[in-house]
Structure formats: structure tokens, C-alpha cells
Recover the amino acids of this structure.
């Protein structure tokens, strides 16, 4: 039998989500953004990777390497990841929003060890509002993307900074993406306390359709990545978390684009079943409309 399996945290998520909770989808019009938005890049460019090493309690970590990563908690349990794209907007998966009661959601930024509540750079916010893509389909996971606006803007700095949205149609096939999160370290394993990242090769959709999924399951709005032999997958990331691609800006600085959103896969790191991600470049209009293009931080 073929079926889709929500990546990673499904068992945890499914047991904690209210079964009756339903969320109406509203698409915010561009004009609504003119008033009330407090977005401000505080002079920062998007996507600049942080210091890659910092010694904490004697062990090396990568605390500020990916400062746009956020952990989403539902009633205190980690259930999804997300990526910061302004000082108050996040991109995540629609299935992390759809049918979830936002009053019970808390989002943590600037964290490395999610169990360590006294981390210096940590900021916590609630959901002000959120929008799943109106075309999201739970059956196919097509259009699995959504936008969150926080209850209150963040203070941007070393530990908390936004990632870049891709400019347009990059060809990533054959190159590696980075996927990160606090998700399970194996299909039946536990969540990770510390942020982990993996490198996965990006494949063309034509190639992905030759893998063990049914070709029709892989739509143009998805992108697949992973190794044929399995073993390394977005199981180490979370649903809704970022798939990232590193480029260089005009000043030669390493800069990271959000090219995908962790969406689904059958199991985790099973041979022949690559991870499937929402292809962010296909949602450029939706994202810019929901977020307000002027809220996005400059690349250069
Ligand atoms: C994470 O933080 C908790 C609470 O401070 C601590 O008990 C745990 O050992 C830390 N985990 C790691 C992997 O450092
Ligand atoms: C999504 O993007 C891909 C790659 O640029 C393109 O081939 C495809 O037609 C797009 N699909 C949709 C539905 O816009």
C-alpha cells in the first residue's frame, strides 16, 4: 500500500493535536500590509551564516550558524520547524498550521539545545496570525507551505536573523542542500535536544519519479533530496523546517537561501525513498503577498 507519511514527528503530533480543531484559511490581501506591520530588518542582510563554532560548557556547538531556524511547540511539545524571513514572519509547512489551534503554539528562536531554557540568545513568541496555502491538500501534500506572523517582532542580532528567499528559478540539481532541525535521529528514535544538520543531494523531479514513490505523488511544486542508500534524511530535520542552499553575495559573503520546506517522505531515510520538500521558488508570489515584499531583508 502506498500512503504518505508525515515526516518525523507524526506520532507525537498526531497524539497531541486536537482532532476537532479546524482552521479557516484566509489569504491576506497586499493592501492589508500597509498598516500595522512593524517589520524592520534593523540593517541586517538576509541569510548570512553566523559564527560556526562556539564553545559552550566544554563542547563545540554551532549555536549561531543557522540563526533563522525556529522550533515550534504545541502544548510544550516540539512538533515542527520553521524559518525566519523577516523580524516577524516565518515560512513553514501548511501541515504545521492546518487544523492546529494557534493559541497552543509557542515558537522558540536563537536556541541550540531546546531543553535548555536559559540559553542566552533565546527568544520566544506566540503566533499572531498564520496562513496555510489555500491550495494545500492533506491527501497529496501538494502546496505544503504557509506563513506565520508573530505576536510581536523579534530583536534581530547574532542569534536570531532571517534567511533569504530564493530570487528565482535556481537549478539545484546535483548540488547539496542543508536540512536542519531537532527532529528524530532515526525513524523510531527520539527527538534531538540539539540542532542537527545534514547535507543531502538534490535530484530532478524526473529522477525522483523513478524512485519508489508513485510518479504522480511528486508534483512540480515539490523537490526531492536524499541518498539512494537512505541513511541520511530530513528525519534529522522537522516538518516545516528549512531546506537551505548556500550561495555567495556580491560582497563574497556566504549567504543562505530557503529553497525548500521539509514536507513528507515515506518513513525516514529508507532506501529508495528520498525526502520530499515543498519547492519554495514556486510560491514566490504567495510568500511575498503574505509577508509583504518590503519586509524581506536585502541580500546585498
Ligand atoms: C540540553 O540541556 C539540558 C538542560 O539544561 C541538559 O540536561 C542536557 O544535557 C542538554 N543536552 C545536550 C545534548 O547538551
Ligand atoms: C515550479 O517550478 C519548476 C522549476 O522552476 C517549474 O518547472 C514548474 O513548472 C513550476 N510549477 C508550477 C506549478 O508553477
Amino acid at each position: 500500500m502506498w500512503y504518505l507519511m508525515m515526516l518525523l514527528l507524526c506520532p507525537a503530533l498526531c497524539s497531541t493535536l486536537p482532532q476537532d480543531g479546524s482552521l479557516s484559511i484566509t489569504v491576506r490581501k497586499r493592501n492589508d500590509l500597509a498598516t500595522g506591520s512593524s517589520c524592520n530588518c534593523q540593517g541586517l542582510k538576509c541569510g548570512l551564516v553566523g559564527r560556526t563554532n562556539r564553545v559552550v560548557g566544554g563542547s563545540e556547538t554551532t549555536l549561531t550558524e543557522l540563526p533563522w531556524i525556529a522550533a515550534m511547540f504545541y502544548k510544550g511539545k516540539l512538533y515542527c520547524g520553521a524559518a525566519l524571513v523577516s523580524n516577524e514572519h516565518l515560512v513553514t509547512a501548511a501541515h504545521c498550521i492546518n487544523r492546529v489551534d494557534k493559541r497552543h503554539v509557542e515558537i522558540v528562536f536563537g536556541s541550540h539545545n531546546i531543553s535548555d531554557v536559559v540559553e542566552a540568545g533565546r527568544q520566544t513568541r506566540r503566533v499572531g496570525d498564520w496562513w496555510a496555502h489555500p491550495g494545500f491538500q492533506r491527501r497529496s501534500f501538494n502546496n505544503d507551505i504557509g506563513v506565520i506572523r508573530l505576536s510581536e517582532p523579534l530583536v534581530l542580532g547574532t542569534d536570531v536573523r532571517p534567511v533569504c528567499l530564493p530570487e528565482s528559478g535556481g537549478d539545484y540539481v546535483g548540488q547539496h542542500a542543508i536540512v536542519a532541525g531537532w527532529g528524530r535521529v532515526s525513524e523510531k528514535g527520539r527527538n534531538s535536544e540539539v540542532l542537527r544538520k545534514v547535507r543531502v543531494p538534490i535530484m530532478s523531479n524526473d529522477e525522483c519519479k523513478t524512485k519508489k514513490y508513485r510518479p504522480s505523488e511528486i508534483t512540480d511544486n515539490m523537490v526531492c533530496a536524499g541518498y539512494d542508500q537512505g541513511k541520511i534524511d530530513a528525519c534529522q530535520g522537522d516538518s516545516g523546517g528549512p531546506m537551505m542552499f548556500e550561495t555567495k553575495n556580491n560582497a563574497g559573503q556566504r549567504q543562505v537561501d530557503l529553497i525548500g520546506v521539509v514536507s513528507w517522505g515515506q518513513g525516514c531515510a529508507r532506501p529508495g525513498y528520498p525526502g520530499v520538500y515543498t519547492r519554495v521558488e514556486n510560491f514566490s508570489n504567495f510568500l511575498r503577498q503574505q509577508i509583504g515584499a518590503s519586509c524581506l531583508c536585502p541580500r546585498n
Observations:
- The pocket of 2-acetamido-2-deoxy-beta-D-glucopyranose (ligand 2) is lined by residues 169, 220-221, 279, 281-282 (CB under 6 Å).
